[in-house]
Each structure stands twice: as structure tokens, then as C-alpha cells.
Amino acid sequence: MGLTASLWGQVDTTDAPLDDNSATQIQIENLVDDADAQEFDFDTEFENLEIYQRNPLDINKASREELQALNLLSAIQIQALINYRNRFGQIFSLYELQGVPTFDQSSIAKILPFVSLEATKEMEAFSFKRAFKYKRQQVFMRYQRNIEDQAGFLPQDGEDPDFLGSPDKLYLRYRLTYKDRLSMGLTLEKDAGEEWLTPFSQKNQTKLPDYFSAHFFIKDYNKWVKAIALGDYQVYFGQGLTTWSGFGTRKGAAVLNIKRLSNKIRPYSSVNEALFMRGAAATIGGSKWEATVFGSHRFRDGNISLVQTDSLDDSFEVLEVSSLQLSGLHRTENELEDKNSLQQITTGANMTYKANTWRIGANVVYNHLSDSLVRTPRLYQKYAFNGQSLLNASLDYNLAYKNLQFFGETAVSDNGGLATINGLTAALDEKVSMALIYRNYAKNYQTLTGNAFGESSGTNNEKGLYMGLNANLGRGLSFSGYFDLFVFPWLRSNIDAPSKGHEYFVRLDYQPAYRWNLYFQYRFEQKEGNRSDNATPYDYLINKKRQNARIHFRYRLSREWEIRSRAELSFYEDHEFSKGFMMYQDLVWSARFAPLKVQTRFAVFATEDYDTRIYAYENDVLYAFSVPAYYGRGSRFYINTSYKFNRKLTLWVRYAQTYWADREEISSGQNLILGNTRSELKVQLRLKF
């Protein structure tokens, strides 16, 4: 495989910030480099890796669940490592990882900072005294602001601005950890346009920080108690048909990462105001079985309306909810009216039996809303959930046989709707691996917390077959690709008939040495949808095609300098054909004379419409990320700097600006900017003690 000395030089990274690890950055970019990026829980994933960076996982004794928790290896690679250990015994050198089937140079580079060969001591009994004696604490303070004024912050015709608060976005977080055994923390946030203290709800005018989150989490308390969560946490069952609180992998450059892998419960410390539970959860179990129970009660934002139920009494009205909101924005009077306007109770349980090569689990999740969900009566929502209570139940399984893994889940909602997802991952030989997954989500399957693999975000009204392939061609060359065929049996939003589509993706990577790599990728997608300029009395479907082609180059010139270059084309065809182009140059400098790092980019773009927009991942301050859409005609640059004053104090400063040459105003409505530039400043301070 030809692992270079420079690769192994990356092992000693105990005190290096995670954003210095190029392999980790590439892994995250492969997961979030598209429009679904906003679901990605960057805080949780990076904090998880930071724990393993300080307390590396013993590669010889790590269980399947512990390897899954890294979120850096596919199910195929985890199985290959376990098979290798079973066959050859202890791994004495990290060089041996070259001999594990499906482990290529990039895979090994990703995990090196987080694994070790040191013999792991028997798990110590949990002790609060020891945990608080050897604890690690961090405080993050972040300030963010758009420089240009938006219409929502300006007085209109002598009236007060629509936005009640300042343009500043503020973030404060405290977290205490002990290895991966104890975590507790508090998070506060105010979005731009919000007041720092806002009424809790229309009914409760007590003013509190607009968003606050707190958690307490213990892992492996003793032999039987595997996890305890209090406050805010996330729940992950099966393949996501009944509940999957956080980010779920979908189609992307990591073509084999289709199997959902996670611990059942995890602490939550991020700022997405919808994708978490609030209450208590616990996992108990032995060597062959495991049980998880959870209960959550939280307030949710919803579009609320008063409905008169008795025509003889105009005063008798009830609340109805037309939809649950996910934005978490409370900037205007109307948005504040919807804040915490209803309550959601969610309870559930999982029971899993585990054998050496297989496991089976049973899941149940119950949701109850304080007010009825009554969606706007549109034909495409005929089978969507309406009401107050919803019950989901499922069975999930996993079977490993040699180099094969079979997995899946089948679920039912209390209205009789069915959903099933079943997959296979296989290492065909040491260099070729494949993945296959079939899903069939009935149009009447209903879930409020499900989030399974699929083309659409809702876990219903979809059938599909996905096939992925990865091949190590030797000499640093690898190929990956997938093909996905999907059908929507019922109508969808702005698609007035059952529809279908397909998508394929190919990528060729070349990395002859750790210092540099080059890749080319191409993506094609065709979906049926309503014709946008239809002038006939009835809508009809046409094929809409989207294509993207990208070439990307990265070269580490020295320990101080790294360059990254990218060019990308996009094409979109509806009744007309449009195209777009984007090119950027990155420069990364890590000073030798001081703990200073500078990351900068200059990009130019020209797209004929928003349909040909191009997404690109950007470096950001630690635990934050940006994946902006490049559209129109113009340029963009950013500079992201970090300076480590000492082992306790680190400062990040980021400035970004987009210039449009084809317009004199940006956006519309409350977000309107009079001018052709949009700039953002972000400052973050971390204190460790």
C-alpha cells in the first residue's frame, strides 16, 4: 500500500486541534458537501472525536459498538477489522492495518489520531470523585454578525423594524467531560434579529435566553448500566424508521456509508432547536442483551391558528397546528407567537438481543402533541399524519457472515402504514467492496421522529434501490460510485402526480502519497416534476436533469503550507438548459514560529440561475461550519485564523465576503440588502481548564 513516513508522522496528535487534521476535514466534507448540510451536528461529531483524540481507542479490544461510535469507518471496514483480529490475533503495529481488507491509505489516515495499540485496562468502576478530579472543562464564546444592514433591522415608513433584536448572533457553551464516561454542559444561543431574552411562549411571558440546552450523561456507570442521559439527548434506533434524532448519512462521496451506525442514546449540546429529546433516557444490559428506554417532554414551535368549533358560541375556539416549525427563529412578533406554542411528549423503548454474528432488536416510539396537527388540506398531504397521537413499532436486525453483512428494519405506524429498509454490505475481495440497499416506505406510513435513508427527507412515499461500489485500484488510485433508482407512489409538494427518478455518481481518487491527492467526480440526477412555466389548465410532469462535474487537488507543500484547488461545473435542464461554474483556490498556513494558523479562499462563480447553484464546504471556527451556495455571477473570499495563546486559551477570527456583479440588491423581504456585497464577521474564544 506504500504508506509514507509522513503519514505515520501524523499519529502524535494528542494536543493538535481537530481542524488541523486534513483527513478528518475530508471525511466531514464528504458527508456535508450538499444541501442537506444544515442537518449535520458538527458540535457533537467533533467533540466526539476530540474525546477519542485525548483517549485513543485500543484497536485490539475495541468492540463493534465502540468502532461505530468513531463515525469514521464504514460497516464493511468494521467487520473486516473484527475478522482480521479473530483470524490473526493481536495487532502489534499500526503498519499491520495495511493488511486489513478494505483499509486503504486514506482510511488509515482518518483513524490514526484516534486509535492506539496500548493494552486497555479493564474498565474501571465509575467514580464521581475520580471523574471530577480528572475532568476537562471548556467554555466557548462566539460572536457573529452580518456587516451590511438587512431590511428587517431598518425602520420602515416610520414604523419600528420587523426584527425585534440586534443583528448580533451570540453563542455561549460550557462543557465538562471525563474521558467518554461523563459529559455535562450548558448551551445558550441568540440568532441574529432575536432578543437575548425572549418570552418563553405566548402563554408564559417569563423572559429567558432564546435558546438554552443542558445535559448530563454517563456512559458505562457499572456492569449493567451502559448509559444514563438527563436533560437534552438524542435517540437512535435501528435504521431510523421510528426515530433517528440527529444527522443521518445519505447519498454522498462516502458511497458505502449507507448503514446507520450509532449508540442508542447520546448527549446533545448543539444548537439545532428541533432535533433532540428533553427528559431522561437509560440503557441497561449484559453481554447478550440490551434495553433502552427514554421519555421526553418539550415545547415545540408550530404554525398555530384558532378554529371555532361551535357556530352557536363564537367564544369557543381551539388551537390547531398546521405544521411543526424547524427553523428556531424568533425575530418578529409573528415568529414569537409560534414559539413554544405546543408541547410534544415522546417516549420509547428498544430491546436488543446480541449473539456473536447477529443481533435483533424491537423498537417502539410514541408521540403525543398537546394540540391537534391539522395540515393544510392539499391533495399531496392526503396520507400525512393528522391528529395528536402517533405510535410506531419496528424490528431491526444485523447478520454478519464472513465478509457479508445483512441489515434492515421494518416498521408500522398505528394507521397500518408500513415501511421497510434492507441492505447488504460486502467485501468482495481485499480491494473491492459493495453496498446494496432497498427501501419501501408506504405513502401512508407516518412518523414524527423517523429519519431513514432515502432520496427525500420524509420517511414515507418512496421506493428505491441503491447500489454502491468502492474499488482500490492500486498505486494510490481508487474508484467509487453509486446508482440509485427511486419511485414516489403518491404526489409530492409541487409534483402533481406519482413520479420517479434516478441518480448516479462516480469518483476517481488518486493519492500516491499523504502529501497530496487529486480527485474527479461526476453526479447526474433525473427527477420528474411539474413544468415551471406551464400555461395549460393542468400541471403535467417533465424530466428535470441536474449534473455536476468537479476536479479537486490538494497538496501539502511543507509542514507550514498547504494548497487546495477546485473547479466545478453544474448543469440543469427543465424546459430550458442552464449552466454554472465555480472555481476556488485555498491557501493554508501553519506558522512554525507561533501557534498561528491561517486558512483563506478566493472563489469566482458564474451560474445562470439558482438551479445551477454550487455548494462548497468552507473552513470555519472550531465546532462551526459553512456550506454556502454559490449562485449568480461574482466572487467570494474568506480568511479564517486561529491563535493559541497557551494550552488554555485559543482565539478564532473569521471574515467572509461575497460580491455579486450581476445585481444591485441581495435577497428579498426582511433579508433584503441594498447593495451587491454581503459580509460576515465571526469571533470565537475557547477557554480550557
TrEMBL record:
It comes from the Bacteria. InterPro entries: RuvA_2-like. SUPFAM superfamilies: RuvA domain 2-like. This is Helix-hairpin-helix domain-containing protein. It comes from Saprospira grandis (strain Lewin).
